[in-house]
Design brief:
4 helices, 5-stranded mixed sheet, Bit1
């Protein structure tokens, strides 16, 4: 009997229209990765497997919100990140979304057409 092993990953989607500095962008991606992982039912397995993650981009807020809603519809752990506004952008600016960790095939239904950052 074959055993099905779930391949897990996490995807972080960032808005390319914000033109954030590398440092700010890195911090936002980290927020999304941690926030989504903390609520994932696959967190323990994903941590043991090496924490596969991919960072991709979308063009604008509307695209990001659509991705966020689609991932929630599929019951994937999802985190919407809003900046505190202390440095480069206004308070409450939505910067990125963290999706997963979850099954790779499930996440790919949402993110497969997005370009790497």
């Amino acid at each position: 009997m074959k055993t099905y092993i779930k391949m897990l990953k996490q995807v972080i989607i960032v808005r390319s229209d914000l033109k954030l500095s590398k440092g700010k962008l890195s911090a936002q991606v980290a927020h999304a990765a941690i926030s989504a992982a903390e609520i994932s039912k696959f967190k323990k397995q994903w941590l043991a497997e090496g924490q596969k993650k991919v960072v991709v981009k979308c063009e604008c807020l509307d695209d990001l919100l659509e991705i966020y809603e689609r991932s929630k519809t599929l019951s994937i752990a999802t985190s919407l990140i809003q900046d505190a506004g202390l440095t480069e952008i206004p308070p409450g600016t939505i910067t990125c979304v963290g999706i997963g960790p979850d099954e790779e095939q499930k996440i790919d239904k949402i993110t497969k057409n997005l370009k790497l950052l």
